[in-house]
Amino acid sequence: MTSQTPVWFITAASSGFGKYMAFEALHRGHKVIASARSTTRIQDLKDAGADIVALDVTSPLPELQKIAKEANDKYGYITHLVNAAGYILVGAVEETSPEEDYDTFNTNVFGTLNVSKAFLPYLRATPGEKTIANFGSIASWRAGAGYGLYNGTKFAISGISEAMREELAPFNVKVTVIEPGYFRTGFLNAGARVESKQHIQAYDDSLVGQLRQQLVKTDNQQRGDVVKGAKVCVDILTHSGLAEGKDIPQRVALGSDSPPTIRGKMKDTEELLAEWDSITTNTDHE
């Protein structure tokens, strides 16, 4: 990091990790520009000292570019961009409509892409180290019946973040993907969790039906503490506290359930490869 005061731009700061990372950064004396679709939802951050701006991540790129310029002009630079916007679409692949599919990718993936595109000219031009933190999920690693579209968006964010990390390394822009497990945010609240409009009865007694019931039971019972998680994220992104002396990693497996999920997927994948290697790899030209 440089000796400059960090300046954060955070999307979806009205709830969850966006909100609590903003509060944590403010607590450390950093500058924060917090955004949400409606500024009425982030007045508490304004009261705590943040600048606030209305931003819908699904807006056309020229609108996002205008906001990015205004944000950069506020303090003359941006050091940290946090792409935290996203939601879960619940339903079997057969149940979700093309419009619902597009909407979830538009927010979870295209929103992250376009906000990043809007801010990158300013990040590249800023001296010293800069960071982009994109929010993935343990759903970036393990897919399941009933939330396949969410899995698809988070798999995409993970892959895009890895590519961005390589592309932006020459400009001293560190890119990481934060992959939380289950944290007690409003993510699964009835007002935030989106259910497919079509409900096919045949899936009720399947894993899809079980998933619907499980999400309702899990809401507000998640093990993860979002305040503690946000503090760890800010430590990592600023090389401070618990992360002092460490580089920003390619991914942050956040929460007590995230590393075991990833290790489980790695184990299953290794077993699959070992079983099929002798058949699937004999495909080269002689």
Automatic annotation (TrEMBL):
InterPro entries: DHB_DH, NAD(P)-bd_dom_sf, Sc_DH/Rdtase_CS, SDR_fam, SDR_oxidoreductase. GO terms for molecular function: 2,3-dihydro-2,3-dihydroxybenzoate dehydrogenase activity. The keyword Transit peptide does not apply. Pfam families: adh_short (PF00106). Transmembrane segments: none annotated. One of its GO terms (biological process) is siderophore biosynthetic process. Keywords: NADP, Oxidoreductase. The keyword NADP applies. It comes from the Eukaryota. Belongs to the short-chain dehydrogenases/reductases (SDR) family. This is NAD(P)-binding protein. It comes from Lojkania enalia. The lineage of its organism: Eukaryota, Fungi, Dikarya, Ascomycota, Pezizomycotina.
